[in-house]
Records
---
Amino acid sequence: MSVLNKIPITLKIYYTHSEHSGQWPLCRILWDNKQVANFEANGQEIEFTVLPKLEGTSTLIVEHYGKNAYTEHDKYIEVVGMRVNNIDVKNMLWDSTQYPITAPWDEPFQEDGNLYLGHNGHIIWKFNNPLLLDIQKRLGVRTGTQEGQESTKKVLNEIKEYFANEKDR
Amino acid sequence: MQTDLLLINVPRISLVYPPAGTSLLKGVVEQQGFTCKVKDANYELLNSINDDDDFETITNYFTIPNAEITTHCQKIIDQWYTDLVNYIVELNPKHVGISVFTFECQVATRELCTILRKVYKGKIIIGGAGLSTTGIATQVNDFGNHLLDNKQVDYYVRGEGEHALTDILKENTGDGINNDNYVQITDLNELAYPNYDDVINYNYRYTIEKIQLPITSSRGCVRRCSFCDIHAFWKKYTYRSGENVAYEMVAHYEKYGVRDFFFTDSLINGNLKSFRQLCQTLVEYYKENNLPDRFFSWGGQWIVRTEKQLSPQDYINAAKSGMNGLAMGVESLSEQIRIDMNKGFTNQDLDYTLEQFRRNSINCYFLMIVGYPTEKEEHHLETMQMFTKYQGYAIDGTIFGVNLGGTLSIDEGSPLHKDSLHFGLEPTSENEELFGFDWTSKDNPELTLLKRINRRIDLQELLMDLGYTVWNGDHQLKRLKASYERIKQNTYHFKDILHS
């Protein structure tokens, strides 16, 4: 895993949003709790890069903020797609949890797989690292070979060790 | 009634689907009024081995020079020879034909012929690319001549077998029979369809977990890659019409219920008119029979084309017809090295092709060559960087595998071999002949065999880290190590590259 933490990964989030009503919805994106984007949601997509980790988990947060719950009832953003290094994450999009900041008169709640942010609040996605290998696994991409065509780390390391001791004549 | 011909497949060949050649030949000789049976003895041996270690030991015995064999495995092999010979003697066909598909079938062929000669009175025929140890185009028909000279066989067949085999059955002589004067068949549409009756019920290790049949739609290649000997063997690129190929697929579906096909061609998109016809005919068949798109699935080897040659609509049609699982000879991800190889496509063409595959859910497999004679460190790094760039295609399954090969092998008949002086190539060891892995380049002296092997290892390590599925790495690396040791000991000679 020597190179995986050195290559930036590009994420692109696709969204829809409410019409302009004095102000566009405001949005922030955090990767591992660090802000990577802060923008007015008046387009269709936002792209940013992150540096992945080798181990543990990573979190992606899309936050809707700045909405006046008393005067801006219609303001919202909705996440509609996500690509990581141009890979469509497909169903993984709904493997998320929304934590809205509810109006004082509403009961607080959280909701899985709700990508519509009508309240201020955030949606969180969790990934295992290495990120791309986690996506590969969760997409269900087949990574095996047919029988007799395997490539194993065991043999690779044995052969590598053998040739490490060899010298050109 | 005595069977005219028994065709046998011997180890070691793939177990992923029925061998194409023997069943095609069965169809052809039956069309001429002869009786023929096919026996896939390769499958019968290898499929009977349940223990992984035994499987590896036995396949290594057939394919890796001087591989050790345990007493237990030797017994399994001996019993297999005994059973096979008993079967032949009992069937008592007029002719036995052994398919020497590659040089990796030589060990089994030689041994079988030796035993058979003592107990079988009919004629023994061998044929296939494995008659030559150093590549199908070589003029040195070492294995065929060796067995003929030793009277272990009656006939060897060079070149295509369809006409030659019929000639043997009819009059015992003809082009390519015990001589190298084979004549290439120009009209492939005239050939009968293969007859898979004898092997259709074998439980091959289909990669897609259902029955898959091989199809051959062309012979030869439209390109002239410098490392490849295919165009020396198939002087002319010949191909079947798209309709003819589609009708064969439909015939197999209607006879066997098979919907999955793998093309054995060097390339399935060599003739674009025929390729489009194939896609179109299949799509129309689905429509006429109220079948969904992609009702069949079919794939094979693919060459990268420009957007001008193959439009996005062509990819949409191909996907609708069921095209999937394509093996591409990408060879190097350094554009300069591919120019040196005469590969005929740019990085832009490859980017375009991969994106069309992704959009149409067509997956592919890269065939690579590490250590081309002009490859320098920067080219190797470029390849590693490009694999990093393409990582997303491995993650989403567009690239489902990479085969790194065993580093560049110089095959007789290839431009690299023919023009070795021009390329500055010479044997590394005391060999007088340039072949296989035993070469070095005067123009690029840093690219030693050891350097090439280490780059091969580095690349596999990177790819596995990036989430690519590397295929056949274990076998290739072990074989590479065995070859390296023989070169070091000056025992790597092409005439006895296998068991001497």
---
Amino acid sequence: MNAEHHKKITDAPQVGLFASCLVDALRPTIGFAAAKLLEDAGCIVSVPERQVCCGQPAYNAGDRKAAAAIARQTIVLFEKFDYVVAPSGSCAAMLRVHFPGLLSDDPAWALRAAVLGEKCWELTSFLTDVRGVAAVKSGFHSGFRGKITYHDSCAGLRELGVRKQPRKLLASIDGLTMKDHSIADVCCGFGGTFCVKYGKISTAMTDAKIEAVLATGADMVVAGDLGCLLAIAGRLSRRGDRVEARHVAELLAGMTNGPPISGDG
Amino acid sequence: MIMDAAPDQSSAPDFPARAAAALADPTLQGALTKLQTEFRRDRAAMLGRIPEFDQLRDHATAIRNHSLAHLDELLEQFETNVSLTGGIVHWCRNAAEACETVTGICRAVGAETVAKSKSMLSEEIALNDHLAAASIEPVETDLGEYILQLRHETPSHIVMPAIHLNAGQIADVFREAHTDHDPARYLGDADALLAEARAMLRQKFLDADVGITGANALIADTGSILLVTNEGNADLVHSLPKTHIAIVGIEKAVATLDGAMAVVRVLARSATTQEVTSYTTLVTGKRRANDADGPSSFHVVLVDNGRSRMLAGPYAEALRCIRCGACQSLCPVYGAVGGHAYGAVYAGPIGAVLTPNLGAPGGLGAARHLPQASSFCGQCEEVCPVRIPLPALMRRLREDAFEDRQITVAGQKWIAAWGWAAQRPALYRLGRRIGILMLRILAKVSGGTIRTLPLAGGWSATRDFPAPEGGSFVELWNRRKRRESS
Amino acid sequence: MSSARDDILSAVRRASSAKRAADNSANDIATGGPILPARAQGIPGELRNRFCEMARFAGATVEIVADRDRVPGAIAAYLSREAPGDRLVLASDPQIVSLPWGATPRLQVRPGLPLADDTASVTGAVAGIAETGSLLVASGAATANALHVLCETHIVLLRAQDMRGSYEEALAMLGAKMPRAATFITGPSRTADIEKTPQIGVHGPKRLHILLIDG
């Protein structure tokens, strides 16, 4: 990579936004928030139209063939970008950590997967670790004043090391207090199809998470993965607890005028 | 018996049924909450005391990998060195051979009572039943195992076997079983229970004809075995009776004493969060000619039971396991349902991988739920002292199940359909549009929040689902961009 | 008809040799030394202090004794405070038997094997391990292994010069031949099997008292 190209990347990198199927289908606000944050950090954002799912459902169900096909498709679509960013730790981990292994049988594809993997990032860690963002623009500070608690999604935390980054950015928002709940790093019970196949066990895990959240007195639970948030918010709603759930991107981009993820709002 | 055998498979409760019962059991739930909360707290304290823990894990992992890559050499070397100290090594391909060998040794010395220290392998091969059938009385000396023996129960955790019980349940079984005592005696606290157990078991140690232990490691260099306990019961078991039998899985071999110490440095820290067990012993052979005490015969019963098959296959990394149980203590699924729900000797994440692989070849079968009942949170791999990639191994088992069309897990067809559609972006986009529309209709119909999701009763039973905002982000974004640039 | 031994070893050999062929790096650890935590290292003064701290953390009591002659008196005082009872069974080690027990006539001492009703034993230690506050003890002609685990009170004599940093250094003191039982003892016997309540004194000793002897 020559100096001019490197400078081009550093100044105004081409970022392919990997929306994730849940964000795409259920909550575009998160996608728009992510794009806004990326553009404010000086990136040129594209959202490839042919993107689909990262293949986690197939991968974790043991359908390796389908997962590998989806991986190849995704690589073709995104490898042209300087960076690939997802508002989802599990999707970013799928692309970064798991694609290379999935395609390890074919050296050419394995290499392409490795090259793509190097460029893949979860949103908040991309902003802090790559773009050097220390605080969100003051213009983004939303009307929300209150106490939040952050839930660490498993894949983001354990596969990508995302923990300090979202908290650092959230801390820069005026009027927001943060308090970690006792089991912030413990699984919420989503686990993809796990929450449907083993619903009772999953719900017990989510209830434990919610009890810890309630114990902090937080008004809102925030996380970086919509899957986790759906599982938590869906349970909060059914239980009738008065805690909101939002994606970290919505808060950071000041896009909190719409309803939270919980069923009512 | 790797798994509870049921004479009639169709009526045997399987994992989901057991899990549901466990979730509804308040005593068990109390015990599990205590286990998790305290373990997390204590583990954090342990990590604070030993900043080099990750390096120690790396070293233990390397030692165990070396073991597996040299296992044939190490086992032969071990056998030679045991023989030099006057011990005898027996080789057993499966549970039946192992039970027959141990029972045979006991019969040969006319044993009536056998004192046992804790051995998960003895559970795996169902040794106690076999001994009892031969009119040889096995007595568990580990307090937790002793309590379970009285209750006719199996351990629910690798290192804390009776963790699922409360003091009241223990008092009840003591009253029932210790009939020589005054029925009105006080058993209202842990101290009273412990005092009674200590007194009951002391005589058993002294009277036992044979002592049976497991082993945490086999040291090839010296022909020694490593035994760790907090209670000191293993040391009484291998010192007082005339015969000492150690039953050990073949994968436990390490090359040197240094290798054994590398395991020691991570074992107790991972298992109980203490620095090291109170008693960490290297036993080498039988009593020497001038020794003041000790058994006059020493036997090591090496057990395969599927391990050599595992070694050759994709699950070999699970053979690094040193049986610390940390994966169980921190697994949120184990923490919700406890060990008995798994219906297998080894529960939790390690159990999900060992259970389908140990014993006779036959694969998943009754154990099909175990690798599926995981959210892949990764906590197990994060704490494993020998870095077993448990989620990856469970995913591999799911791949095996997916390939084997005889094993259907709920939703498999739908996932396959999803995967098929995802490979055809135009079809995916159409499906997405329909899906969003249907969800919006469902939401409208139930007043804003979806209370019943078709095809996802497992979700809707306990959770609501939000209405989609409307439209696909990818489409909306690109449409907007096209408008802006025109 | 192949034997069980043949079947097992040939299966293991096939699998292990394939691993050896695939990746030789597993051999490196055979040549590398142990990984010693910082706690296992230090100058003698540091090791001694750390030993006392870690042994106490594990629930043992540690008493510094200026020289061997003071041992019987220290033991008598300890027993009268903590574990009333006058009988002591000693390891037959001449170093222990020849201590001036006459100075404490109240104590009835007897070398040899512990009996079921013995409540206190006295043994020597091969080494102290500063890393975890552990003692290395060994069975042998002079020391019945039961002395380490049968009695309610276990008193151990540790010479200051036998202090080491790590398990490995302590094991090196055993010499070419392993004893039948070499045990690292760390604190008294314990369990948490009843509702995770930590309890002391299960089958082994309730009390571990270490006399660290300078002279």
